[in-house]
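We modelled the chain as a single entity of 197 amino acids. Its sequence is:
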Amino acid sequence: MTDEQSTMIDFGPTAQRVTALLSGVTDEQLSAPTPCGAYSVADLLDHFMGLALAMRHAAEKTTAAAGPAPGQGSADKLDPDWRQELPRRLEALAVAWREPSAWLGTTEAGGVTMPAQMMGIVALDELVIHGWDLARATGQPYDCDPSSVETIIGWLSAVPDEERPEELFGPRIPVPADAPPLDRAIALSGRDPGWRA
């Protein structure tokens, strides 16, 4: 196994955790705010829909058919069948990234080309952090498998402040040195781990 293949990440646990949140989202909560900037819950769900599709195609190296850029999310565009469709897309995303070839070479999503290994970590970051966003916005508990959280912490810690895209990250939030790993990851993404709806 090469060094590239040895860095494969199983998206399954994180995708399943996000899917489990969906049954706890009520129609009344779709207009509620989230910790993700100006996104409402419906905006965030639409973002998840595009993200899951685009990042699956990034894994498959079939980006020409990837559809909308994953950075876009709009309540007005949210598929009315999201409760059924989003779990399917998340599962397909996890399956696609289980292929060793997904982690090799370069790939593209949302008009950005980068090494496939890095794209995989970006996709994992999106799932972990936005899963937390959705849980907080809808008043649900959220945990994440430790290996995924540690991967996100390592990546977010390594990105210099001047290279952090403002549209993706806010300023890092200080947390105690003994804060739980998920709180550290959330703070590194620019969110307040204590955020409540």
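As a brief sanity check on the tokenised model: The radius of gyration is 16 Å. The longest strand covers residues 106-109.
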